[in-house]
Amino acid sequence: MTEADERMRRWRLVLGGGDADGTGCGLQGADVQMDAALAAVYDLSPIHISEPTRP
Description:
Number of helices: 2
Structural class: mainly alpha
């Protein structure tokens, strides 16, 4: 893997994939699992975000 390919792979992981990331870079092997873990942590949908409670 070239340095440019490695840089693009890292950007792809940071940006989260999909059409909006603009990298056109796919993932393979352990990177797919890492991407899923990052998505589980950072991709919160509105139903996972609760309203603050007031005392």
